Amino acid sequence: MVYFALIFAGLLIAIVPVAIAAGKSARGRYIIYGVSLTASIALLLIALAALFGNSASAVRLPLGLPWVGAHFRLDALAAFFLAVVNLGGAAASLYAIGYGAHERAPLQVIPFYPAFLAGMSLVTLADDAFSFLLSWEFMSLTSWALVMAHHRERDNARAGYVYLIMASFGTAALILTFGLLAGPDGGYTFAEIRAEHPAASVAAAVLILTLIGAGSKAGLVPLHVWLPLAHPAAPSHVSALMSGVMTKVAVYGFVRIAFDLIGAPAWWWSILVLALGGVTSVMGVLYALMQHDLKRLLAYHTVENIGIIFIGLGLSLAFRAHGMALAAALALTAGLLHVFNHSVFKSLLFFGAGSVLTATGERDMEHLGGLIHRMPQTAFVFLVGCAAISALPPLNGFVSEWLTFQAILLSPQLPSWSLKLVVPAVGALLALSAALAAACFVKAFGVTFLGRARTNVVERATETDRFSLAAMFGLAALCLVAGILPGVFIDALAPTVKSLVGERMPVQTGVEWLSIVPIAESRSSYNGLLVFLFMVLSGTFAAVAIHRWASDRLRRSPPWDCGYPDASPATQYTADSFAQPIRRVFGTVVFRAREHGEMPPPGDMRPARFKVDLRDFVWDMLYAPVAAGVGTAADQLNHLQFLTIRQFLSLVFAALVILLLVLAIWP
Amino acid sequence: MALILDFAVQGAQMLVVLLLAPLLTGFVRKVKARFLRRRGPRLIQPYLDLVRLMRKEVVLAENASWLFRVIPYLIFAATWVAASLVPTFRTGLLFSWSADLIAIIALLGSARFFLALAGLDVGTSFGGIGSSREVMIASLAEPAMVMIVFTLALIAGSTQLSTMAGYLVSSEVGLRVSLGLALIAIIMVAIAENARIPVDNPATHLELTMVHEAMVLEYSGRHLALIDLSASLKLLLYVSLIACLFAPWGMATPGAGFAGLALGVLAYLGKLAVGGFLLALFETSIAKMRVFRVPEFMGAALMLSLLATLLLFVSRSL
Q1: What confidence tens digit (pLDDT) does each residue in A457-487 have?
Q2: Short-list A496, A392, A526, A607, CA closest to A124
Q3: pTM, whole model, 2 decimals?
Q4: Nearest Cα to A190, choosing from A133, A121, A118, A266?
Q5: Among A233, A401, A258, A280, which Cα is nearest to A331's?
Q6: Per the CB < 8 Å rule, is B306 touching A428?
Q7: Which of A300, A347, A550, A631 could form a disulfide with A244 if both were Cys (CB 3.0 to 4.6 A apart)?
Q8: A533 — contact with chain B (CB < 8 Å)?
Q9: pLDDT tens across A118-131, in order?
Q10: Within an 8 Å CB–CB cutoff, is residue A539 touching chain B?
């Protein structure tokens, strides 16, 4: 299996020269994205075959470090994430066949795109530290190049710079992680690392470094700062891949190390992971609510969903540390199912945002509005995505959140006291973020697609092309299917979960009426299919009955608006005013939001002004001091540049003496 | 045979909630009017209103989209399904396992999501004001409700409403601090969710502080009828939910015969009457709050329910 996977990943890299040669022409675009689509579908099928066939296969290639070689392995965990990566990859490639036609600088996008896809797939396949890090860095650099594709646009260069720093920082943390894991003998294959059982202190350091390394890529608060800058800067199909898929590769890195390589967890790890997950989910959605750039809003919302995923993973670690394997399986299934769900609806939403961008040239919601009349099909699929990400039944986002809640309800059985206090607080944070997410997507959809057009760019908008629509409708259908038949997806996760925590959730597909029963039927059950059917039936019943027996007449007229309709679209609620009540409730604390109204005195003809100050305290407290420190140090060291040759020589000599001294004193 | 009976009971439940919902709304209005020394409209006035609205033509704003016309049916469907799954006169309904209490709350969340979108669709300032405030209130009410569900689920060991009701009616429960906190919190949430005084005023149609009415301002005819019916259903749902969880006495169990069912129906009607009366009493005795007082009110509900959950994590017997 793993051979075929490597062949297709190699194919993706092999077409890069073709992309450089032919990327500019329309035919080249069809070829490159077509080949990417084919390779992604092939990799998806291979991953599914490995997942359902439950067979692990490994290979060692004579590449890389001569004494290690390059090991690749396709086990259940890798297969699940390979499937997620390539599902997103296939959808993005299909979307890009149409979307790519609008690209102004195709040569800065097309060559890097298949390489980026290959990099993500190779991370999931790697089976030794060296190939893992190499693929990881390959993925980072290709995505960085894609972020920089439009480097002349405002803020994009800064986004790329911040991303490069954070990506290097994360990789540095991961290098240290694997260094610690490999131990003094330097066994760098994952099999050797698994056999090694690190001491408690080493394992703790590994966990923290992993949280930094994988967490910075995934977007855990406070390491999320690059994400809302970089994800929107890339072309939209790449944004979808970065937000929907690359963050999942980071989750894979965390799961691989924390659940598989490191050995048995200590009980307090879960507190760290849970607290980070809870804070990340609420902070992510609050940041998202404050945005009026559609793509940046979506990027911040990825941060929230990463938080939800880490809550599931943290719960699983907690249960596992206390030997409750069944509960650990439930929590891990919830987290991994959310990985899949989020990759589907976040890709869908970014595709929708990309279609809006190509149709209007605008990402700023304050300039949009009323697009549902111009782009009805895009509006429909975007609405499905919004409902799914807001965890509304009967769509898929609800299922994974419901499972996470069920896992939280099992946690009073945990013996440790600190967990007993942390878990309900995390549950409250999760509930809060779910409710705020719904508010956020009412805003995103309502301001962009509903209401009246705010500027005349909307008047020129037309429905997007059929490739993009096909990709979006496919993902929307998947949102519905995963929502009404969750049992199939839960069962598909069983081998992965069993390989990590030694237990699996009960088989769901055999349950009558296709409902899902995580523990026991008397405890909790949910049937998305029936809920969906009931809703369809009662809605249809109401519509038919009313149109048949009551009235079906309809008359169009100007809006009522309490008798004071205003022709100016500027009287509508905007994205900022929509979020104003929430900003006043939460923002005054979290962002120190301050509103300043400036009213000129009577007789003065200046317009009145209203201004809102928001402070990002993560940036202010953490990054700004570090950046200032680096700047000061650089200024100080700058003097070294202007020394005379004698001073330079004495400096070199002194350095040599000090190093030799250290070597001599070293025990 | 048993299956047919189960189907019949489930069908009866769906019809009962649909038919009783306007009556409860009318009852609350009547009692409120009597407290204000007015004669008040007839008890059946909400039914007459619904029929009148159904028969009228729809006057639709010129730039309303297809979504605006679909949303009333979506809201009605989601609310009706949710209301049909809350045990009223009998526990162990045929389809009760298809959605537990968390899913019922989420179904109501779906209805609210679409209603808030409807407020934004025509692009008027009143619609926007309503949607924006509704999501602010919901962003605190929903987590509070989830924490209440946690509290009850930890006590009963289940999120299935039938199982919860069965456990809470048994003598094992006793008086608990957490249950008391949860009761206060759920009443606060129910008041906010149903747009009652002091959070919102259901009797207004032109007021700067309106929330629910502002969102539905552009609706007319059959669409408005469906939205009004959904609002009534939601009120009935919350009264039934509180009755089912905190006063589960008299409900028929799955094995009960005709006498049991009759007793269950009578007990349910009695509970609705008491609930409606208390709501009217509360509404007449309190003034409406400013909009930015509402977060404090909902925050109190959230803190109470979180405290209740924490107590249960500390000790199962609290």
Answers
A1: 988 899 999 999 999 999 999 999 999 999 9
A2: A496
A3: 0.95
A4: A133
A5: A401
A6: yes
A7: A347
A8: no
A9: 999 999 999 999 99
A10: yes
Q: Which residue has the higher pLDDT, A302 or A605?
A: A302
State the CB neighbour count (10 A cutoff) for residue A208. Answer: 15
Return the pLDDT at A367. 93
Q: Where are the alpha helices (DSSP H) in A591-643?
A: 617-618, 624-637
For chain B, the structural domain boundaries read 2-314
Q: Is B65 on the interface with A (CB under 8 A)?
A: yes
Residues 207-266 of B with CB under 8 A from A: 217-218, 221-222, 225-226
Among the listed residues A261, A335, A350, the one whose alpha carbon sits nearest the alpha carbon of residue A305: A335
Q: What average pLDDT does range A568-585 have in this prediction?
A: 92
Q: Is A584 exposed, middle or buried (0-12, 13-18, 19+ CB in 10 A)?
A: middle
Q: CA–CA distance from B15 to each of A300, A544, B8, B22, B83 (Å)?
A: 44, 17, 10, 12, 10
> CA B252, CA B274: separation in Å to the nearest integer?
19
> What CA dihedral angle connects A313, A314, A318 and A321, to 10 degrees?
60
Nearest to B97 among A372, A521, A565 (CB): A521
Identify all chain B residues contacting A551, using CB atoms and an 8 Å cutoff. 54-58, 221-222
Query: First vs last Cα of chain A: how many Å apart?
Result: 50
Residues 6+ apart with CB under 8 A from B258: none
Look up residue A77 and give its amino acid: L
Q: Apex CA B199: angle with CA B197 and CA B205, to 5°?
A: 70
> Residue type for A641, please?
Q
B1: pLDDT strictly greater than 70: no
- Over chain A, what is the mean pLDDT? 92
* Chain A residues closer than 8 Å to B60 by CB: 554-557
Q: Average pLDDT, stretch A331-360?
A: 96
Helix ranges (H only) for A550-593 are 575-582, 588-590
Half-sphere exposure of B236 (CA within 13 A, CB side): 33
Q: Which residues pair with A73 in a beta bridge?
A: A58
Determine the residue of chain A that is closest to B128 in CA distance.
A573
Report yes or no: A453 and A367 within 8 Å, Cβ to Cβ: no
Print the SS3 string covering A186-253.
Answer: CCCEHHHHHHCCCCHHHHHHHHHHHHHHHHHHHCCCCCCCCHHHHHHHCCHHHHHHHHHHHHHHHHHH
Residues with Cβ within 8 Å of A659's Cβ and at least 6 positions away in sequence, in order, are: none
Going by C-alpha positions, the residue among A433, A436, A244 that lies closest to residue A354 is A244
The structure tokens listed for B307 are: 């405290």
Tens-digit pLDDT profile for residues B114-124: 999 999 999 99
Contacts for A621 with CB less than 8 Å, ≥ 6 apart: none
Residue B62 exposed, middle or buried by CB count within 10 Å (0-12, 13-18, 19+): exposed
**pLDDT value, residue A160:** 94
Q: Are B78 and B105 in contact (CB under 8 A)?
A: no
Please indicate whether, in this complex, the C-beta atoms of B139 and A435 are within 8 angstroms of each other: yes
Contact B16, B86 (CB under 8 A): no
Taking a contact as any Cβ pair under 8 Å apart, which residues of chain A between 404 and 423 contact chain B?
Answer: 405-406, 408-409, 411-412, 420-421, 423
> Which residue in the block uniquely carries the two structure tokens 């929107």?
A232
Question: Does any CB of chain B come closer than 8 Å to the CB of residue A378?
Answer: no
User: H or E element: which one contains A6?
Assistant: helix A2-14
